[in-house]
Write a structure and sequence with these properties.
The protein has about 250 residues and is mainly β. The protein contains one helix and 16 strands. The strands form four sheets. Strands 5-11-10-7-8 form a five-stranded mixed beta sheet, with no helix packed on it. The structure holds copper (II) ion.
């Protein structure tokens, strides 16, 4: 039987239509993206290098090498882009899978790496010491159990981070060493780079509140809508050292 009869053509067209309808009704979920920039409000502050005395830095690095003295608590570019700003959001019903391996915060060349570690609540942090000198891990936590212990060269300390909190982590042996474990119950997050930009991937369509945090500048909020096609308008948020009226942001 040839397929040129009107009946056969109708049947083919109907089959094609059914197929088209089926694919339209069940589209693959679009993993959207939230993105933006955090900029400094006001005159860009001058950032000074950290004070690192030679006798305190003994053994931190190989001979002839110096400890990186960049102060990461306030990195603002000439055009106002702020680095190391944490942006979090929560997708309702989204589950965060805790990492199987601990989240590493290394002490390397007398610096914490990374400067800010993102830690889903309930995950374990491993504080390593990759140096040949002793370090100490001193957490300034309020909600989580505090830790203040020496970490010998090449060893590690582990800590379970249960509660949502930005934990300041310092080393008492090297006073310039400072970092944060950002323990969060949010489902999605990003951190700004040196260009002040952040990207949060895998966000489904919907309206979201953004929680923004910087260790020195405090907190800010923003809202964003992810469209059905996964796109969203760039968020721009200004953060300053002082609110109008002279109050410091917390
Ligand atoms: Cu140290």
């Amino acid at each position: 039987m040839k397929l040129t009869t009107p009946l056969a053509l109708t049947a083919l067209a109907a089959a094609a239509a059914t197929f088209a309808t089926a694919t339209t009704e069940a589209p693959a979920p679009v993993a959207g993206k939230v993105h933006g920039k955090i900029v400094f409000d006001g005159d860009v502050p001058e950032t000074k290098p950290l004070t690192i005395k030679d006798d305190q830095a003994k053994g931190c690095c190989a001979d002839g090498e110096k400890v990186d003295s960049t102060d990461r608590t306030m990195i603002v570019s000439k055009d106002g882009a702020i680095a190391n700003v944490v942006v979090t959001l929560t997708v309702a019903d989204a589950k965060v899978e805790l990492p199987k391996e601990p989240i590493v915060m290394d002490q390397s060349k007398c610096r914490f790496e990374p400067h800010i570690a993102m830690v889903p609540a309930g995950a374990t942090i491993a504080f390593l010491n990759s140096d040949s000198v002793s370090h100490n891990v001193h957490t300034y936590s309020v909600k989580n159990d505090p830790l203040n212990k020496t970490v010998a060269a090449g060893s590690k300390l582990e800590m379970k981070a249960e509660k949502e909190e930005a934990i300041k982590v310092a080393c008492d042996i090297h006073p310039w060493m400072l970092s944060y474990a950002y323990v969060t119950e949010a489902t999605h997050w990003g951190i700004t780079g040196a260009d002040g930009m952040f990207t949060i991937e895998g966000v489904p369509a919907g309206e979201y509140k953004l929680d923004i945090w910087h260790e020195t500048l405090g907190k800010a909020k923003a809202e964003v809508t992810v469209a059905a096609d996964g796109s969203s308008e760039a968020v721009e948020v200004k953060m300053g050292e002082k609110k109008k009226g002279g109050r410091r942001r917390r």
